[in-house]
Amino acid sequence: MNLGIVIGSVVCTVKTPTLTGRRLLIVRKIINGKPGGTVIACDATGEAGIGDTVYMIGRAEAALMLDLQAPPPSDTTIAGIVDPETLVG
Questions:
Q1: Is 14 inside any structural domain?
Q2: What is the domain count for the chain?
């Protein structure tokens, strides 16, 4: 499971047409309960925001989740937002 916390967003003046309308967010990975490195992820939910804990999918599956017919160039996609009540620490 790939978890992370949204810490910001990316603004692009030009991007590939298959990414048009997709939000790009900066996510700090959570590795073994501790903050890890950051990644840029496409938001498939359209709802993730700063401070949200999110579930991410990587590799080829990340792009396929966005569009099966014309997958955009995405290595990481936000697939869901984790409810705070479900986190056990």
A1: yes
A2: 1
